[in-house]
Automatic annotation (TrEMBL):
The keyword Cell membrane applies. This is Spermidine/putrescine ABC transporter permease. Its main location: membrane. GO terms for biological process: transmembrane transport. It is found in: Cell inner membrane; Cell membrane. Belongs to the binding-protein-dependent transport system permease family. It comes from Mesorhizobium mediterraneum.
Amino acid sequence: MKSGRFWAWVVFALGAAYFFIPLIATVEFSMRMRRGVYSFDAYEVVLGDPRFQATFGYSVLAAVFTIILGVLIVVPTAYWIRLRLPQLRPVVEFITLLPLVIPAIVIVFGYIRMYGSNSPLPFLASDTGTNALLVIGYATLALPYMYRAVDTGLRTIDVRTLTEAAQILGAGWGTIITRVILPNVLIAVLSGAFLTFAIVLGEFTMASLLNRPAFGPYLQNIGANRAYEPAALAIIAFAITWACMSLIQILSRFAPRSANRPN
């Protein structure tokens, strides 16, 4: 028993070292911009850069629209499949896995080919259309994670019973989804939203080839031309990621309990 605990602590220590040593080294390197002393000059340069503010704001806004689009598509689809079309679930799961198999560069070149200025749907002929196409592309990349998060949440509740009870009370389909199903899978939706946010924030290929001022191309440009600023950006991105995870944990305490959870 004691031997098992010892090796468990050894494995934990090795895992913690594997995680924290590169992080500490990155923090230490990012603070060496000024010779001979540690400083936050690299962070001040990055945070004061107008391009950082513009690209980060653009990616955050794109992430918000991507999350909204993903929720509007995935929640009703996953709900309807679980309620009425369970035989199609393997087909839908296969379709949602395709973005993991098809590279993003193939998807974006398909977009450029299909929605160029000479096509019947010239999304790329305007900035608004290109932004909308980028959001659609982001939603496609995030589809496997959003769908599985929502599907896992639906497994924890009795969808059929909740639907029948709502229908007895006179609720329509829109009311059932927004006021009955969605609150019960809110944590699953938030998990999918966090993964979507992380994907959008760091995505490079689509934003670069569509020539959008997103955060991913900015990270690549800084990494190719600077020394200390990329390390500072990595720490900032890490802090944002953990802040989002903490926010999900906080929001989960205020979410309604599902039908299968004990009070």
